[in-house]
Amino acid sequence: MKIPKAITDLIDSFQKLPGIGPKSAQRLAFYLLHVPQSELDSFAESLSNLKKNTVLCSVCKNVTESDPCPVCLDTQRDQNTIMVVEQPIDLIAFERSGKYNGLYHVLHGVINPLENIGPDEIFINNLISRVSKIEDREIEIIVATNPTMEGDATAMFIADKIKKLKNEEKMNEFKVSRLGMGIPTGADLEYADEVTLKEAILGRRSM
């Protein structure tokens, strides 16, 4: 039996999503056949508007509706700490915990040579440029990449770049730290609970 092209096209599209295999993609596609057309239209409109109605904050690179984003504009937040995270969803996890009140910088990935992702493919240079423009106050950069091989390599790269910047510009007021105990090796921050994130922030260590 030949499956209609409209269905196979949708299955192929679902399979391109992370964590979706052929069987899951097929189940999703056939499930949507039973959804009312009005809901499908709403779903399609949401997908269409995903990039149309969002922008990257020019300061922290978070996904937002306005530029700069609300976090960067909030003068009540601690302006002396910048937490570096891999993805916007990690930022959301820390905001949900309510245990951090500083600023952020979103990398949108990690250094991964196996997937041809180097420092220039993510927003590391933007972070270094942002840090280099900070004057006359003590700043802590909290590197909150995931505790994976790629996350650790990215953290070390960032720490080395900032230490080099400190030496060149004689900026002794910069401190670089890494999340501490509480986050198990190989874990994703987006799945961590509030207590675990709090322990990780409080237990951060210098790099």
UniProtKB/TrEMBL annotation:
Q: Which PROSITE patterns match?
A: RECR, TOPRIM
> What are the residue boundaries of the Toprim domain, all occurrences included?
80-177
What InterPro entries does the record point to?
A: DNA_Rcmb_RecR (IPR000093), Rcmb_RecR (IPR023627), Rcmb_RecR_Znf (IPR015967), TOPRIM_dom (IPR006171), TOPRIM_RecR (IPR034137)
Gene Ontology MF annotations: DNA binding; zinc ion binding
Which keywords does this chain's UniProt record carry? Answer: DNA damage, DNA recombination, DNA repair, Metal-binding, Zinc, Zinc-finger
Q: Which domain of life is it from?
A: Bacteria
Q: List the C4-type zinc finger ranges.
A: 57-72
Name one process (GO BP) from the record: DNA recombination
Family indicated by similarity: Belongs to the RecR family.
Q: Which HAMAP family match?
A: RecR (MF_00017)
Summarize the protein's role: May play a role in DNA repair. It seems to be involved in an RecBC-independent recombinational process of DNA repair. It may act with RecF and RecO.
NCBIfam families in UniProt: recR (TIGR00615)
Name of the protein: Recombination protein RecR
Q: Give the species this sequence originates from.
A: Candidatus Woesebacteria bacterium GW2011_GWD1_38_10
Q: Which lineage? A: Bacteria, Candidatus Woeseibacteriota
Q: Which gene encodes it?
A: recR
